[in-house]
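User: Structure with pterin-6-yl-methyl-monophosphate, tokens only please.
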Amino acid sequence: MSTLRDRVAGLPDWDRCAVMGVVNVTPDSFSDGGQWFDTELAVKHGLDLVAQGADLVDVGGESTRPGAARVDEAEELRRVVPVVRELAAAGVVVSVDTMRAAVAEQAIEAGARLVNDVSAGAADPAMVPAVAAAYVPFVVMHWRGRSIDMNNRAVYADVVGEVVDELGRSMERAVAGGIDPERIVIDPGLGFAKEAGHDLALIAQLGRLRALGRPLLVAASRKRFLGRVLAGGEGAAPPPARERDAATAAVSAIVAREGAWAVRVHEVRASADAVRVARAVERAAGAAGREDKTANATGTV
Ligand code: PMM
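Assistant:
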């Protein structure tokens, strides 16, 4: 665990784990599909998330849920760019969630300040050069292939070790393609080619990902592994995605305490509280540590 705050060049410093609110401008995302599938509603939702405590807002126009088919580029542009433009004009720090370089480029022109590509540049060879040229921060997520068949790739001997190695290679490719290492954020890709046990192991051993030396984004919000945890026994029905927000906030508190740079969540308010509590506990731990040292030095313990 680090008490030094991670910094990402090109983005504000938040002095605690940041909260990234999600705006999915899609008809079919597994957790909130269809709710914000309209520019005006999506913009309003983004502003509401900021009012609830989001530090930045991640706008996406393509669902990455397991089994999802791709949308075409023109449609993705139509969904994403106007929402990015309006939120950025309102002063919101906007991230764009896309696997397409053309969408990233137009979103950046419209004011996006971070590119969040779940494929880390693997889905579109033009992505890394586009992000490098725009000189914006880039999320490198652990990914083993497209949503359509990713569940078949959830095979690991040592999930944490393999995720660290594969993320390290994706980072190297991004840097070789011209992206400033100081602008890279890494993400374990919870639920992407992973079973519930893999996701939990990654959360439990987040410190091993910090060995990669870059700030960590954790996106547990409403994911299947939380459904499994809440269902209890094997074979029991998991609660629907929208009933996993308290569990999501619990993960936010845990990973914030473990030094995550940001959490990506659909329901912001509870996670905004969770990261503030984690920060207060971190400060108290720092103060207690200093008191212990003083007491030891003066022989009072
Ligand atoms: N998960 C989803 C979408 N985008 N981006 C990052 N960086 N990390 C993730 O784990 C991630 C993501 C899928 O969830 P959603 O479609 O419900 O938002």
